[in-house]
Amino acid sequence: MSENFNFKIEKKLPGKLGRAGKITTPNGEINTPSFVVVGTKATVKAMTPEMLKSLGAQVVLANTYHLYLQPGNELVKKAGGFAKFMGWQGPTMTDSGGFQVFSLGAAFGEHVSKVAKAGDENRKKVEDGGTGNKNKLAKIDEDGVTFRSHINGDQHRFTPESSMQVQWDLGADMIFAFDECTSPQATHEYQKEAMDRTHRWAMRSLVAHEKLDPENIQALFGVVQGGRHEDLRKESAKALAEMKTENGSMFDGFGIGGSFDKDDMGTAVAWVNESLPEEKPRHLLGIGDPIDVFLGVENGCDLFDCVAPTRVARNGSLYTKNGPIHITNAAYRADFSPIEEGCQCYTCQNYTKAYLAHLFHAKEILANTLASVHNVYFIVNLVHKIREAILEDKFFEFKEEFIKGYSIK
RNA sequence: GCGUCGGUGGCGGAGUGGUCAAUCGCAAUUGACUGUAAAUCAAUCGCCUUCGGGCUACGCAGGUUCGAAUCCUGCCCGGCGCA
Fold this sequence. Notes:
Layout: E1 6-12, E2 19-25, E3 28-32, E4 34-38, H1 49-54, E5 60-63, H2 64-69, H3 73-78, H4 82-86, E6 92-95, H5 98-106, E7 115-116, E8 138-140, E9 145-148, E10 155-158, H6 160-170, E11 174-176, H7 188-212, E12 219-224, H8 230-242, E13 253-256, E14 260-261, H9 265-273, E15 282-284, H10 290-298, E16 303-306, H11 308-314, E17 317-318, E18 325-326, H12 346-350, H13 353-361, H14 366-391, H15 395-406
Parallel strand pairs: 4-5, 4-16, 5-6, 6-11, 7-14, 11-12, 12-13, 13-15, 15-16
Antiparallel strand pairs: 1-2, 2-3, 8-9, 9-10, 17-18
Helix pairs in contact: 6-7, 7-8, 8-9, 9-10, 10-14, 11-14, 13-14, 14-15
The protein binds one RNA strand through helix 5, strand 16 and helix 11.
């Protein structure tokens, strides 16, 4: 770890892998655990950076593939990096494009989530991980991934080296090694194959990053894979934890990627985190349902990012401590109370459910903003409260109380 | 008054003798969404159902036909034209 990047553990959860700490980056500090807001195309959809700041967001994550395609990493570099480009003052991250290997590859055109639910057992197993179908927009080979742009069909290629270059241009404080996010439908055999390839790509990412950024201004996180399998998850965590270039460069932190079973996400995360070095931060990639966040923190994750709060908000689902509500339901048309009594967010302080329901039914653009403000506030604040609970030795009570309330429905 | 065109499910609007409870769009109802292909997508949307099916329906009333939303007659209503 360099002087640019630092992680300090402030307090550990007794008997568990969880901890509260502080990450220092060139653009500011992050109190962890923390929820990272997703701003894929250098914008958190429907929200301004000012809104994000005022509701307590500490970090924004943008996407390498999307910004590479549009407006192009060169342009973002000229703008001074994506943070400056979008007007965000504070720490940032970029995802490597590895998730698009999944979303435009194995998952393209399928109804597959990276989180498999209990009812999905009879999902078909896919020998090639689901990537073989020729209608997919992403194809994997040993060297990298060929994408067809989802915007206009243009062909593009990503390799570990090019991902590092694009991420360097985008200029985030924390970046990820190029990896392959696998489908939960993939067989153990394919998960193993993909994991090994991800490890080779991880080494290449380390080497490429070392050349591009000798001062180590950007912290590079390796991404653990292995799907739902204990042996692979542990193997992956150990391999990345020990990975070192000839010049001695190692990962500054770790992402936990790939697919999970909804039911034992906490267990899978624990397999990984018990195999990773304690002193480096861990980011649980793409996970952010309220209950999942508790499991992630308890089992040793420091950072989370997820599109769910904003996407779900735009589609009319709003978080409450008693579980999410669907604001377009007929029941809320004349409900003049806030989304949640006592919620301190801008939306709840100023608007009623009936008004939000009206905005959604009328397809008014403000609906997206107000709903996103509430959901992002909810999840950012929830993780913040989890942190406080750890510091005050009240984590387990807080967790139990929250889950009890959230699961009422 | 005469002529003419038209009256279809909450709305718009297809259908012009059988495979029509009726294409499609909207509205409505419900659900999904976890490193954003996403202000998206899915299901339901006459009544009843043991989910096999049953019943009532295309302005109203008759008629032709094995069979009618579709053809004929009358009536009612609306648009347009002429008086």
